[in-house]
User: What shape does this take?
Amino acid sequence: QVQLVESGGGLVQPGESLRLSCAASGVRFSMYNMAWYRQVPGKQRDLVAHITTGDTTTYADSVKGRFIISRDNAKNTVYLQMNSLKPDNTAVYYCKAEFLGSVSYWGQGTRVTVSS
Assistant: This one.
């Protein structure tokens, strides 16, 4: 059974940082590309950051220079370090595992609220 479990969300003030984690089980983690998406109510789920099996990373323009995606294959975990958070970063953040572009799994999401 495949499980992706996100953690690390919470309430922070603008300018602060958070690190999200996504622990995977039931998959051969090192063979999966991993990604973080975000979703706000009434809108589609948007890509935030992506990391390949070879550690190539891509980012949404809005988070470049502030967010860092990384992975630890020994721990079956992908991370999203979010720095200099802004109110418009408020969303539910989802972890996604992708295999060969045709198989994917989602976590249940973790809520991030940026507010003073």
In short: The two ends are 40 Å apart (CA to CA). DSSP finds no helices and eleven strands in the chain.
